[in-house]
Design brief:
- It contains seven helices and 13 strands.
- It is of the alpha+beta class.
- It has one domain: 4-Layer Sandwich (Metallo-beta-lactamase, Chain A).
- The strands form three sheets. The protein has a six-stranded mixed beta sheet with strand order 6-7-8-9-12-13. Strands 1-2-3-4-5 form a five-stranded mixed beta sheet, covered by helices on one side.
Amino acid sequence: MGALKGAIIPVTAFQQNCTLLWDDGSKHGVVVDPGGDPDRILTAIREADVTVERIWLTHGHLDHAGGAADLRDQLNGVPIEGPDRRDEFLLHGLEAQGAQYGFQVRNVTPDRWLVEGESVSLGDHRFAVLHCPGHTPGHVVYVNHAARFALVGDVLFQGSIGRTDFPYGDHEALIEAITAKLLPLGDDFSFLCGHGPGSSIGAERAHNPFLR
């Protein structure tokens, strides 16, 4: 098993952190949350000389999933995995979401819905799936215990948490997911989030005002 490598590709006007992860030995990889700008993502894939085998989605918002259908087509139909089926209404409403912001995007249906307790894999690198609702009903987080690393989407940020001011948002559920599922991972766990710089569980436990 080679080392796990990664690159962040900011996409869309929302500057969403699309992530390219790959095994440095096999050069096989996954794209996480291709919210848009598929040509920019494809350029990063070519520059890293990576063969993408999967697309993973953390949740169904436009800036995280808006480019998934186009990218899947351009990567010869690689499977899309995630999120939890409770975000189906968002993924099937991407075109409507895009129209509100002047984006032309396509609705998408994953090849595999995910539920907590399952895992997804990048070669020998296994990521446990945690269901962390609140920002959206079906938001999932990908956790690699061996590398002490997680991809948390829009659940937790450096110094902040995901928005819950949507009709389907739930602030209490989001805080419960963070405190019951993310904080117990351990202070040494690092994470990448959907926007802005990454952080660690320890730093957020100590300094995030929403967790005090």
